[in-house]
Amino acid sequence: MIGGNAKGFGTGTSFGSGALERVTSDTHLAILSVFSTIASLAIGSFAVYRLIHGEFIVALFDSLLVAAMLGGLVYAWKTGRSALVGNLVATLLAVGTLFMIFVLGLSHLWLFSLMIALFLMASRVVSIALSLLLVAVVGNGTEVFTDPVERVTFLVVAVQVAVFSFVFAWRTSHQHRQLHVMANRDPLTGIGNRRALRREMARRAEAARMSSERAALALIDLDHFKKVNDRHGHDAGDKVLVDLAGIVSDTMRACDSFYRYGGEEFVLVMPGTPLEGIVPALEKLQGAIHERLRGPDGPLTVSIGAAGLKADEESQKWLSRADRALYVAKSDGRDRVCIDQE
Length: 342
Fold this sequence. Notes:
By secondary structure, the protein is an alpha+beta fold. It has helices spanning 15-25, 27-52, 56-79, 82-102, 110-121, 124-139, 148-184, 194-211, 225-232, 234-251, 278-292, 315-331; strands at residues 215-222, 257-262, 265-271, 294-295, 298-299, 302-308, 337-340. The strands form two sheets. A five-stranded mixed β-sheet has the order 2-3-1-6-7, with helices on both faces. A two-stranded antiparallel ribbon has the order 4-5. β6, α12 (315-331) and β7 (337-340) form a beta-alpha-beta unit. The chain is elongated. Mean pLDDT is 88; it is low at 2-17.
């Protein structure tokens, strides 16, 4: 039973801690935030300089570029669609750089730092396409290069920078995905862990407050699991846990999410599920468990406690009510579903 341990799921975190968790868990958003902020400060300074010197058209162009980057960054923070915003910002910067090179006479050397940023911010397809466009347009610009040797040097260095940036960005993304799995997945069963559960519950509680979105939570506890470990060892117990995780994963809907809370306790989060829909869903799940879950001594059962999420409820309270229902299910003889009606 979870009991008092549920208090770790409160949602009363500060904005600062929530923002810190966002950027530490979403590397792409962190890179986009840093680059957009620095680029906006730099380009904004040039806009002010141009404005002071009466270059109003150029100042307007710089200001629009800054507004687009900052607007995209705000959109990424609100929606979580950092990949889309990264592609848009990268495209804007590429077009803006070409404009400044050919119209304002900006040095083509800025292209190298931009290409590194493209591979960090944009998807692989977009970053490769933009890099090829930049190299082709600038490399063929007669007003940029008058010396053939300088043109060839630029092309060779640009290709080297692009290849290095691609490999670095790909490797960084691959390692981040591995770390994300390690940080958010239970190593035994492969389903979400407590850290991932905490974030999902906070998301559902926020959605309920903002738009009254329904959700249900079910605590699933294996009955008499200690006997399996005591009689047959932890390897047998681990197999039972893996089998249970597989059964639930096969039975639940695509929009549901499943987590191992600890030991033999699991949590199933069911978004869009009203109170009256909890019992049919969990009875279907119990039927699958009755049919498929087996231990060394025969069939195994589970007790389930569930609760529907209230519009103004914190995740701590939501989890505590489900835990209370699970206690009732255990007390009433196990192998049953109990719903908190509060």
